[in-house]
Amino acid sequence: MPHLTKELIERLPPPAKGYRLTYDDDATTPGFGIRVTATGVRSFILTYRTKTGRQSRATIGRFGPAPLLSVAAARREARDMLAAIRGGADPVVDARKARDEATQKRAEERGAKTVADLCDDYVENHLPDKRPASAEDDRRMIRDHIKPHLGNMKARDIRKDDINRLLRKIRDDGKPVRANRVRSLLSTIFNREVGESVDHNPVKGAIKNREEGRKRYVTREELPRLLAAIAAHRNKTAGAILRLLLYTGARKGETCAAKWSDFDLDAGLWIKPGSTTKQKTEHRANLPPGAVAMLRGLPRVSEYVFPSPRRPGQPFRELKKPWAEICEAAEIEDLRIHDLRHTVASLLADAGYGLGDIGAILGHASQATTERYRHIFKERERAAADSVGSIIDSAAGKPSLTLIDGGA
């Protein structure tokens, strides 16, 4: 038997298949050796007999530079193992027992997770990849619905009946659509844990409320009142955002997050980056003349077109209160900000534009057919955008573009 050294081990050729054992000649560590596999992996081993006479072989560790094992370190480990064996230990059995205990402990820890723990994992590891508005909505649903009703329950104990009780409560509070959104979020959270904290997704088969597409939009009779209320409101930043929504049919989130660098006012273009759009792709939107004129009249005091007056360096987001006051002043009920997007679609349809043009103006994600004929629709998109601008300007009676901020 050779005396194992670093140089000798490095020169040992791998076998054609399987592995080859080479034992050390040190009498103080009988059974100590090196195993070389056909792939060239070198690991220290110890062949020994237990007190009952059964022969076994334990792997000490991989050969190599730190953090792997040197010959000297492996030989010391072999001496310690032999001493333990003389005392009745069995390294192979003991290692297997330790692995089983660690596996059991991990299983218990996973099984001990509560729904609140799952929600926290989701917030930490999944929400950073979502759009800010969607992430904030998920946080609200977790805070207002999921944690208060299911948070303290063990995730593995949750059943479909528990999910249904929560969804019925939200529905019976007059929020059937919200119940569906909570259901979808819960399903996502549990799906991420199947095979870990839970064996199956308890949301599968839970109740789902029927949803009808919302048809609310600003009527031709309401539009002048709405624009007059926007022009009269003290918060001119909120007013400018709402007018841009009416001019373009854009989404609230992408409008609030708009930066001056996104606009080419000379060309009448708003180039929305994929980071702000729902479809996560760039969308080039034509701006009608009224929108261009309004934007030129805004002060450039930040990289954001609509900066927050309360949080320096952040976009404006305080629309809830101004919107409620504007709707009250205009005597308009049951109108959401997102309904302005429906309004633009309605105005375009009334003006004779087809679904392809409307989809292109609004930046819908599923417009494969429209994209095939993009070159045909270019001029019609420009005409469509200008048409909306003319309608808005006419209904507004060309209100003043002086923009002096008031409070939110």
TrEMBL record:
SUPFAM superfamilies: DNA breaking-rejoining enzymes (SSF56349). InterPro entries: CB, DNA_brk_join_enz, Integrase-like_cat_sf, Integrase_catalytic, Integrase_DNA-bd_sf, Integrase_DNA_bind_dom, Integrase_recombinase_N, Phage_int_M. GO terms for biological process: DNA integration; DNA recombination. One of its GO terms (molecular function) is DNA binding. Residues 113-194 form the Core-binding (CB) domain. Pfam families: Arm-DNA-bind_3, Phage_int_M, Phage_integrase. Gene3D superfamilies: 1.10.150.130, Integrase, DNA-binding domain (3.30.160.390), Intergrase catalytic core (1.10.443.10). The keyword Repeat does not apply. Signal peptide: none annotated. Residues 213-386 form the Tyr recombinase domain. Keywords: DNA integration, DNA recombination, DNA-binding. Belongs to the 'phage' integrase family. This is Putative prophage CPS-53 integrase.
